Please model this.
Amino acid sequence: MNPQQQSLLRYSRFKPWEPLLWLLAFAAPVLVPSHALIINEIAIVALFAVSLDLILGYTGIVSLGHAAFFGLGGYAAALFAKLVMPDPLVGLAVGIGAATLLGALTSFTIMRGSDLTRLMVTLGVGLIMLELANKLDWLTGGADGLQGVVMGPLLGRFEFDLSGRTAAYYSLTVLLLLFLLLRRVVHSPFGATLQAIRDNRLRAMAIGIPVNSRLAVVYTLAAGVAGAAGALLTQTTGFASLDLFEFHRSADVMLVLVIGGTGWLYGGVAGAIVFKLMQDALSSITPQYWTFWIGLFLVVLVLVGRERLIRPWTWFSRRGKA
Model:
């Protein structure tokens, strides 16, 4: 085993705190049953953020249209449940498949140009999907949304109820499985080539890495994971609307990664927890101005720095050394 393989193996191993984190996450719906619905939302946002981190943090692709895959996955799962069969797992697979296909078809849009070009092109894809969902109102319900979506019991036994416990466990399980898959991907030789492309695309091409094919594969994979998050949202809420494709979806998930950090998959999970808990708490205290406080928090986070905000004593120690 060469040194590079040993390094990848070392980074791919679970840290002692990781199983404890996931055990705590799965215990949360039992420990705080009144918050099962917000736990479900956090798991969905975390999955969405992890999918964006795969292309932003590990590959350096900036996207403002990630909601296109989120929305298509959500609508595909909802339409499948309404028109074909209400089985959640089959519907989830359909949502993932639809978003993966869209990711493969649009992957060429991120292979050329600057970051600004990719921002505009990916945003354009999201707006196109939003307009299509609006115009095809005979299928999607248009501005009124897709109503009458009734999901069958999970595994034929667990009903989706108003308490949200089944939904929370369903979303947490999907999050964990896809997280483990992506963790394996980013700590593989394939993931190492993605980071090489992120750091210097020209140098990666010079040493023989097939840059375009790598970008297409990772973009398609990220699209499928985002589609899974959208499918989970419509399945656990029983409703799909144009809001799934709105720009704020892409903006919010970008803010989640700003909070949690990019280039490590747990950044999406940590950012989702902080963002959703702040949103829930602030909107209950100040329904009209909660966005102001989140904006202020982001400004402080950027100016002070994530590390100093989490561990303030490092600021004083660095000042002493200076």
Q: What stands out?
A: The two ends are 43 Å apart (CA to CA).
